[in-house]
Amino acid sequence: MQSFLKELVEKHRPFTREGKLADYIPQLAKQNPSALGVSVRTCEGGVYSAGDCPIEFTLQSISKVITLILALMDRGEEEVFDHVGMEPTGNPFNSIYDLEVNSPGKPLNPMINAGALVVSSLIEGSTVEERLERILTLVRDMAENPDIGVDEAVYHSERVTGYRNRSMAYFLKEFGIVDDVESTLELYFKHCSISVTCDDLARMGLCLARYGEDEKGRQVVPRPIARLVKTFMVTCGMYNASGEFAIKVGIPAKSGVSGGILASVPERMGIGVFGPALDEKGNSHAGVRLLKDLSREWNLSIF
Ligand code: DON
Q1: Which sites bind substrate (predicted)?
Q2: CA–CA separation, 44 and 52 (whole Å)
C-alpha cells in the first residue's frame, strides 16, 4: 500500500504543472505549486502516506463540512434547511448568479460560499471567538489532534480581499437570512483558515467513514449527521465538477482552494490529499487524478 501511494505521487506530480495556485487570496499564491501528498487511514488501523504530507495548509472550503455538522448539531435539520437548500449547482463555488436569479435569499446548498455563510451564521455561541473555538474543537476531535489552530496570515489575507463573500453576505442580509454580517464574515474567514496536514484530513475522513466515531470509539459526530454530510460531499463537494468526480472517483469528498481534499470511503478509510495547483473549477488538479487512480486500484467507488 505504502509503495503504491509513493508511485501514485511520483506519477501525478508532473500534472501539478498544469494547475494554478489560487491567487484571489494573496497568501495562498505563496504555496509551492509542485507540492503533492496523500495520507490514508483505514478502519483496520492501517496508516499510509506519501509525498508532501508534513506540509500544513488551510481547510478553506473543506471547513464547510465541519460547520454544517456543527450547525446541524446546534439547530437540527429543519431549521438549517429552512435557511439553505440541498441541491447541487452547475455554477462556480463563489457564484452570485444563483442567489439572485434562481433562489433569492436561499442559497442552493451548504457547500457553496453563499450557503456556507448562512451555515456559519447559524453556529451557536455568544462571540465570534466562542463560535470559532467550538468549530476548532470539532476539527480537533475528528482529527484527534489537539494542536490544530488558525493560520493568521491566511485569515488576514482573505479578510482584506474577500470582496465577493462580503457582497454575498450583504445580499443575504437583505433577505433576512443572515443577521450580523460582520461577525458572520469574521467567523467564515477564520474557519476557512484552520490549518491542517494530509494526515489530519485522513483522520477526519476516517471519522466520517466510521459514521462519526473516532478511533477511540467516541461518537464525535452523531451518526445521522455523518451520513447526511457524506451525501452532500457526493452531490456538491467538488462544486460543479461533482458529477464527473462521482463517475470517475465515486468517493464522498470535499475540496478547498488551498489544494486540500477530504475523502471518506464509508466503512473502509479516510483519505487526505494536498496539491495546491488547481484546475479551472478550483479543485486540486493532480489531487483529483491521483484519487481517480487510487479509487480504481483499490476498488473504492461507493456506487
Ligand atoms: O471563500 C472562499 O472563497 C475561500 N475561503 C474558500 C473557497 C474554496 O475553498 C472553494 N474550493 N474549492
Answers
A1: 61, 113, 158, 165, 188, 239, 257
A2: 24
Beta strands 47-51 and 57-58 are unpaired
Residue range 31-66, pLDDT digits in tens? 999 999 999 999 999 999 999 999 999 999 999 999
According to the model, what pLDDT value does residue 259 have? Answer: 98
pLDDT digits 0-9 by tens, 186-213: 999 999 999 999 999 999 999 999 999 9
**129-140 pLDDT tens trace:** 999 999 999 999
Cite the annotated binding site for substrate by residue number. 61, 113, 158, 165, 188, 239, 257
Which residues of the chain are in CATH 3.40.710.10 domains? 2-57+197-298, 61-192
- Choose the CATH number for 2-57+197-298 among 3.10.20.30, 3.40.50.80, 3.40.710.10, 3.40.50.620: 3.40.710.10
Cα dist from 4 to 9, 90, 200, whole Å: 9, 34, 21
Which residues are known to be catalytic? 61, 64, 188, 239, 257
Strands (E), the chain: 37-42, 47-51, 57-58, 149-150, 194-196, 253-255, 260-265, 269-274
**168 Cα: distance to centroid of ligand 1 (angstroms):** 13
Question: Grid coordinates standing for 153?
Answer: 496570515
Pick from 61, 167, 273 the residue to mutate for probing ligand 1's pocket: most ligand atoms within 8 Å of its CB.
Answer: 61
CA of 25 to the centre of ligand 1 (A): 9
Domain 61-192 classification at class level: alpha beta
Residue among 64, 113, 274 whose CB has most ligand 1 atoms within 8 A, to mutate? 113
ipTM, interface predicted TM-score of the complex: 0.97
C-alpha 161 to ligand 1 mean position (Å): 12
178-183 own/partner pairs: CB under 8 Å, 24+ apart:
178/117, 178/118, 178/121, 179/121, 180/121, 183/128
Q: What cell numbers appear for 262 in the block?
A: 477530504
